[in-house]
Amino acid sequence: MGVAEPGEGRLFASRRGALAVLFALMIAGTVGAYGVAHPLHSIALTFVFLPVLGLGGASFAVFTIWLPEQYPTRMRTTAFALTTTFSRWVAAAGTFLIGYGIHATGSLTVPLTLTAVVFVIGMGLVRLAPETRDQPLPS
User: Fold this and answer.
1) Do 6 and 134 contact (CB within 8 A), yes or no?
2) DSSP character for 64?
3) From CA 76, how far away is CA 42, in angstroms rounded?
4) CA-CA distance, 11 to 19, in Å (whole number)?
5) How many helices (H) and strands (E) does the chain have?
6) Exposed (0-12), middle (13-18) or buried (19+): which is 41, by Cβ within 10 Å?
7) Cα angle vertex 91, ends 87, 96, to 5°?
8) What is the average pLDDT score of the chain?
9) How many angstroms separate the first and last alpha carbons of the chain?
């Protein structure tokens, strides 16, 4: 047996792994709260899934750590600001799409549950991102 690398075998041993786990929590929380608890009118189930959503929301904190590590020093703040601001514009458009979905279906259930698809796509794409843990910052 070889010597284990630092952090090997731990759930959050990599930036990508942490983000994938947090995205999975967002999927479970979104589908649970809006696809299960809401249609059943179950406050108890809502209170089960809300903490899952809250923990999964830590995925946004990972971006604060991980995004700047992917860019050289000369452009780090600009790249971080551009990527986070662009995502907010996309999210703003999503708000209108969700509103339209609620109007079209007459319910919160389907449009809000479908927002989990974004995290499913994210889980597929996260493996394409560079792993920066224990790597020197690009200069």
Assistant:
1) yes
2) H
3) 45
4) 11
5) 7, 0
6) exposed
7) 150
8) 88
9) 36
